Amino acid sequence: MLNLKSPAFLRIHMIKQLRQVLYISFSAFFADLGYQAALSLFSIYLVYLLKAPVYLYGIAEALNYGLGSLFGYFGGRLSDHFGAKKVSIFGNALIPLMSLYVFTNKPLFVILFFSWGWWMRNLRTPARRALLSQVTSTEERQEAYGILHALDIAGATIAVGYITLSLFLKLDLKLVMLTTVAYLATSTLLLAFVKASEKPRPKHTKMGTKEKALFSGIIISTSLFGFSYFSFGYPILTVTQRFNAPYLGTLTYVVFLLVSSLSGYVFGRVKYKEALLLAMGYAVASFGSLGFQLSTSLPLYFASSALMGVSVGMVETFEPSLMSKIYLREGEGMGILSAFRSFGLFTGNLVMGFLYSFHLAYWYAFLVSLVAFLVMLASSQKS
């Protein structure tokens, strides 16, 4: 039974290399402070302002995540060969390409600028996760990933906040997006300060029967979660179109990010069965999707966004923490995790783009994330 009053439930470890963890986590903060502004504006700019069809947005997001899965996988592999720090810095330095799409009104070029920046973000992410593993012990990682997610999403929340205000005040989006380059440069500089000792990489990853079952469960579930966890551009677009107010669409995203950041911080300190809590994260996502399907008012949309925030806070804390403990080649393990998630997102965004016009998109997301919960629940029982 889960005893919330137990000291073991919310035990806080003293992280030995806390400064290195904070360098990496604040790098994530400044990265999201920059590129999340571009991300939150993408669907509004492409569909609402440039009048491109929704299915084109779906194709664009599928392209981002489809090829992004390859960039994520090779980013992990490259970090094992050239070092997680070098690959993190390289990928992070090229993310500002995302900010340039507001300087064109051609949908094709909008997609290309956004995609290249996003792919560089995917290249960096598994390397940055591996870098965090290198500066922490096994016991410290759940808390460290919780800190990373909390600061990561805190930066995203501020980014979407200033984009929301910019849309409300009808500011020049080109000037606003230029500021994101400075935030991303700061993010890259912080990664350069990290001092991590490269650990010898084992040639083989030996896993026992329980570890193999857990590994398979995580990979299958994260793919299914990707199938169901659509780009948040869809809820932004849903609210924008329903109320004819772009700033309300991005405000919905702010709610999601605030709750997600807090959830990452809290769940990073929860000392309970990680695999079971990960399964519960997928379950919460299914109800968040159901909420978007059934919502008829702005408060209900906000509540659905909050549920999705709780879900992502749990998943982004427990997935990498579990993977780092069962897969010995850290970079490759994080690359596999990113690749399978992105593959799921590739398929999910294509399906969501097609079903959106038929008002079935969120029903689909609800059902698939429910299956992810059942698969991970079964795996958690075996482990």
TrEMBL record:
The keyword Transmembrane applies. The chain crosses the membrane at residues 21-48, 54-75, 145-169, 175-194, 214-234, 246-268, 275-294, 362-379. InterPro entries: MFS, MFS_trans_sf. The keyword DNA repair does not apply. One of its GO terms (molecular function) is transmembrane transporter activity. It holds the Pfam family MFS_1. Gene3D superfamilies: MFS general substrate transporter like domains. Keywords: Membrane, Transmembrane, Transmembrane helix. PANTHER family: C-METHYLTRANSFERASE, MAJOR FACILITATOR SUPERFAMILY TRANSPORTER. This is Major facilitator superfamily (MFS) profile domain-containing protein. It comes from Candidatus Marsarchaeota G1 archaeon BE_D. The lineage of its organism: Archaea, Candidatus Marsarchaeota, Candidatus Marsarchaeota group 1.
